[in-house]
Amino acid sequence: VQQGDSLITGMHDMPAFDQDALIFAIRTDQAGKSSFPEFLMATWMAGVVSYDVDFVHRKVTYFGAKGDSYIEAYAAVQI
After folding, report:
1. CA torsion sign, 69 to 72 to 73 to 74?
2. For the sheet containing 59-64, what is the strand order?
3. Is 43 left (phi over 0), alpha (psi -120 to 50) or beta?
4. Percentage of the chain with pLDDT > 90?
């Protein structure tokens, strides 16, 4: 296991959930225009506090602190 650096340190207000900013972060990452740490920071700034990956149903659910959520579905890939 390799532990990465924390996104933030100290006390901070949680950013409000911003679905448009989250979708922008996802699309930027999908286009290969961000690193994983940059993607995580962008999701944090969009108000995401956690996410759940469902490999069976090919979806990721992103959660905000006040019960907000956004589901991103992914198409199946044949190898």
Report:
1. negative
2. 48-54, 59-64, 69-73
3. alpha
4. 77
